[in-house]
Structures are given as C-alpha cells and as structure tokens.
Amino acid sequence: MGTIFKIALRNLVQHKVKTLIVGALITLGILLTFVGNSLFESAAKGVKRGYSENFTGDVMIMGQSEKAFSLFGSQDFSAGPGGEPIPVIQHYPELVEFIKSYPGVMGFSAQVSGFGILNFDEAGMGFNLLFGVDPETYFKTFHSIKIVEGRMLANGEPGIMMSRKRIEDIKKQNKVSLKVGQEISLEGFSKSGLKIRTVPLVGIYEYIVPTQALEIVSFIDVQTLRALNAMTVGTAKETPIDDATKKLLDSADDFFSDGPVAAAGAAKDKVDLNAILGDKTKRAELATVDSGSWHNLMIRLNDGVSPSQTISELNKVFSEKNWPLKAVGWKEAAGTSAALTDVAQIIFNIVVIILAIVAVIIIINTLVISVMERTAEIGTMRALGAQKPFVRQLFVWETMLLAGFFGLVGIVIGSLSVVALNLIGLPLDNEFLQVLFGSKNLKPELSLVQVVLSIGFTLFIGVVSWIYPVSIALKVSPLKAIASE
Amino acid sequence: MSIVELKNAKKHYALGKTTVEAVKGVSFEIEQGDFISIAGPSGSGKSTILNLIGLIDTATNGDVLINGQNVATLKDREITLLRHETIGFIFQSFNLIPVLTTRENIEFPLLLGKNNKLTKERKEYVDFLIEEVGLADRIRNRPNELSGGQRQRVAIARALVTKPVIVLADEPTANLDSQTGDDILKLMKKINKDLKTTFIFSTHDAKIVELADHIIRLKDGLITENYRAVSKTLPGS
C-alpha cells in the first residue's frame, strides 16, 4: 500500500502540468456545484420561509377537487380570468374546533382567494390577486406585513390594503396615484357573471420578509371578496333534495314524451309547480353571500413539529370523518410560483451533471494518455512480478488522490466563498432572480449537507474516472517492457 | 536437472495478413549456474526466446519448462508469481521506475510477492546488493539523476534482489559505452560465480559471447550452434 501510494503521489507531482489542468477542472466543477447548491439551498429555505411564515403556513387545508388548486386559486390557467371556482371548505365550524385542539398547532387562519379588476375614476388598473381575510386572526398568524401608510383593516370593515410596490407599479403603468381613503372599484368574474364592489383603500403596507412574487397580492375584507367570487350560500353547500322535488325532476323528461296532454295532466296532479316556484324565500337564501365559506385554512406549527407527519395524520382523520378536505404542505399550497426555484435547481443540476460528464471525460482522457505513455513502466512492473490488482490499485490511487485533493480544494474555496457571500450578501437587482431566490439580497449559508454532498460528488468523479483507464492499464502485457526498447 | 528447457518451441506473430515465424522450433537445455549467451543477428529470434524463457510471452507450439514445470498450462496469476519468484530481468533500456529512488527501485520487486514485508534480513540484502553494484552514494537519487552505467547497475541489483535462480539480460550493454559495458559484465560474471545465479543474455556483443560458458547461436529463428565453452574472464577481473 505504502509503495503504491508513493508511486501514485510522485507520478502526480512528476506530471505537474497534466495534474494541474485536470485538478483545476475538478476544483472548478466542485466549486461551482458547491456554491450553486448552497445558493439554491438557501434560496429554497428563503422561499419556504417567505411562503410558510407569510402566506401558506406549514400545512394548508383546502376542499377536495379533481382540479389543481393552490392558495392563489386554480392552477389551470386555460380556464380564463378567475379560473375554475375554488372549492370551499366543507364542515368549516367542526374543522376549526378540531384544529383548535390539535397538538402542535401554533396558530391558524382562514382565507378566501380571488381576482378583481381594479378601477379608480374610471381608469382600469388591471388584474389584482386578492386575499380575503379576517384581519385579526390572519395577521396574528402571519406577521408578514407592516403598515407604512394608513392603518390595518379592521374586522368586519369593508376595505382593501395594498402593497407599496403595487401602488408604485399602478402609478408607473396606469398613471394613477392611489391614496389612502380613496374608493376603489373592483370587478369580479365568476360563473354567475360580473360583480362590482367598491371599497376604500385603508392601508398601504410592505412585506417584512421580502416576497417579490407576492407583491401583487392585496388584502381585502373577506365578505367583499366572497361577493366578487359569488360565494353564495347556494354554492357553498349541497342542498338536500326532498322526495317531492326529486319526483318533479324525474318527471321533467315527460315534458318531451309522446303523450303531452296525459303527461302534463299527470304531472299537474302530482306536484304543485306554483307552490314551488312561487316561493322565493329559499332562492333568496341560497343567493345570499355565504359569510361562513372559506377556501383555505392555513396552519402554523410549533417548532419541531413535522409538517409531513401532521399532513398525513390530518388526511387520515378527514378520510375517517368523511370530510371532503385535504391537507397539503407549503409547496403545494404555494402552487407554481414556489415551483420556480425547484425548476431552476433542476436546470442547475442538469448543468452540473453535464459539467461532471465533461470533467469525467477529460479526466478519463488524460488518464488514458497517461496509461499509454507509461505502458513500458506498467509492463516492467508486470515483468517484475506485479499482479493485476497492484496495477489497478496504482491507478485507483492516482485518480482518487487527484480527485480527492482537488475536490477538497474546491470544497474549501467553495466554503470560503459561501461564508464571504453570507457576510457581504449578493444583491439581486433582477426581478426574475428575486423571485427565483426569494430574496433581494441573497445570503447563502454554509451547510454540512452541501459539504457531504460535494465530498460524495468528488468521490463519484474519482470512481467513474478510473474505471476505463484501469481497464486499459490491466491489458498492458509485460512484453511492453521489452517492446519499448 | 535443467533449469530451463525448450522443446521444439515455436513462436509465430500475425503481422497484418502475413504470419511472421520468429522462432521456428528450437530445443535446448540450460543448467543452473550457466552464463549463457544467445547470440545472433537482428531478427534471428534471440529476444523472442528470451521472452519465452522469461514468461512474458507464450510459445505458439512446443513446450517451455522452467524448473521442470511446463508453463503452458499456467494462468496469468500463476505465471506472474513464477516469474517473480524465479526470474530477474535486466533490460536494454534499464526500465527503472522513474519516480522511485535507487534504493526504492531495488526494493520494488520485494513488495510484489506473497511475502511483501521488508524485513531486517531483506534490508540487509538490499544494502549488500547496493554495495556490490557500487551505488552506496546514489541510493537517494532518482533514475534521471544517474548515468547509463549507474542505471544498469540499479537494474542488476533489482534483478537480483528476490534471489532468482535465473537472470535474463536482453542486450544489457547495448546502451552503454565500452568501459561501462565491461564493468557491468565483470559485475554480472562475479555475481554468477559468487551466487551461482544463471545468467542468460541475448546479445550481439562479442565480449559477452567470449565470456559465456554456454553459447547458442541463432539464425532465422533456428539454432545454428549450441555448445559449451571454457569459461573465461575479462581482463582485469
């Protein structure tokens, strides 16, 4: 072992230029991977914090549906403005009672999502994402904003609060200067048509944790949003059908049958249509905005409580109770907006894999050349009595020393770079990058996971790189010792 | 008993679409302690015969017996082991390992066998060989810091370190000047006499042929002469 190590090490030192070229490539690859992954890991943490602490909670409960929904509504963008109607939470009062006593819950709040076109003085200001909330419980659960102008929306008060960024964007794009106290008109679209409501702008806020992707969200009193969304009592609950009504609906086919007189006569005998259609009380009741309907219930958990375990347990309970609800994690709750970081990381990882393949090919190529140049030396060793495992070990040591040393250099430089970036911060001026990394000033953190992953990556490069050159070295015959002469 | 025996050994090489018959069927025996010269012009097959005896090549036909053992049936691992335990090599181009020092090059074969520990006894033997080849003041030098003669001395010591019964030397003086070549020959003759090691040379060098006590002459892959001569010494030995 000692002699093999000695020969391997000295060979690397002897062929300095070749060693340095391959080594620099390994260092660069590991450095890029290390720093890149640290940035993404920090970004993922930042995005998670930005979402779970500000909007989604650790666990979100929503109504079951075959369609995909997130906190922002339908994920099916082909459904047009407003998208598919978001399912409301059934059994809400029982659910609240259940969650109140559920272990590990730090706090919770419900929310309604929707869209509205903003108008002021007949000037359109485009689509706006709206969160209808109960301000008292919502901002107790999510300490996400600070009021910079005006005041916080009070419980039960009609009104809207908008982010300073949104106000500035409207000013820039629509030449409209919105001021606190001004009345803003909102147009909402739903299956039941267009709804218009007017509410005052009560406050302008900033996010405490910068959450670039959510700057277009405005908070509105929940009852106004329910009206814009046409969330009526009728849509919120399944209306039980009594036997008489069922009979009427069943007999409706008779209107299109061959015996109209007899059928009509029979139907008239069976039900009193006037009695049903003449009474508008039920219709009026069903058309009333449902003050108890919510789209999502966001739960924040105490530190140390596992969100995935909680989700699993809650879904089991919902299934047992036959409640058409589902609990999801922050990522599913956030929908496609949070998936951007994942997509970027996947793209980055693909780049890293390509880089690794290129690095491995270059290392293999260099080692193969090295084997070819040293056939006489290998042949001599074989002639002197070196068995094949000796030759294999020699090249494995050379590759592993090369990859190990320069990989370690990459990890050390990477760690120092991450620490330096953490101290000085990496300002992100580009909005796309801000969304991607969930911050305006990225401060990656040194993580043990990244160090371990990078060591694993280095070993992987080392192991993959020696297989082919070693197979060539093992084919070198002792005759090569003579042939070189 | 013969230490080496070739029975109608043939070696053919494929060279493109033609077959080259390097050795066309040779038979001879070598006794332990021989100082034998396999002589002949270039292309006569002397290096090929040396490769067959050194177990670094295999005969196309016929038998090669080392210490009475027919090597045709042996596997690569067994051949390597037999080669390590029985044969030492001295190459024309020295073939030292460039990154090892003089001492490390000499010790190298000791680290390859089943017993690869550098015991005190082995170290003392390495010291003895270093003294014998006159390189005591060059033990920490690498091959590129040595002259041709010094490198060949290292190669001789390396060939002897495992105490082989046979040492094969392929034109050992070809890359050396006349004086150094004479010195190397004297050294090998001395070791042959002192340690009873069998030396087998392939050579054009008339001095080696004169010095040998057994001469095999080849031409076109066949033996033309095979005789024992009266052992001589170089002037000044």
Kindly describe this structure.
The complex is a heterodimer of chains A (485) and B (237). With 485 residues, chain A is α+β, with helices and mostly antiparallel strands. Chain A folds into two domains: 2-51 and 339-484, no CATH class; 59-234 and 288-304, no CATH class. Helices cover 55% and strands 18% of the residues of chain A. Chain A contains 19 helices and 14 strands. In chain A, the strands form three sheets. Chain A has a six-stranded mixed β-barrel with strand order 4-5-10-7-9-8. In chain A, strands 2-3 form a two-stranded antiparallel sheet. In chain A, helix 2 runs antiparallel to helix 14 and helix 2 packs antiparallel against helix 18 (448-474). The longest helix of chain A has 41 residues, at 16-56. Chain B has a single domain, classed as Rossmann fold. Chain B has helices spanning 46-53, 76-86, 102-107, 120-132, 148-160, 178-195, 206-211, and strands at 4-15, 18-30, 35-39, 61-66, 69-70, 87-90, 166-170, 198-203, 214-219, 222-228. In chain B, a hairpin with a 2-residue loop joins strand 4 (61-66) and strand 5. Chain B is globular and about 50 Å long. The two termini of chain B are 30 Å apart.
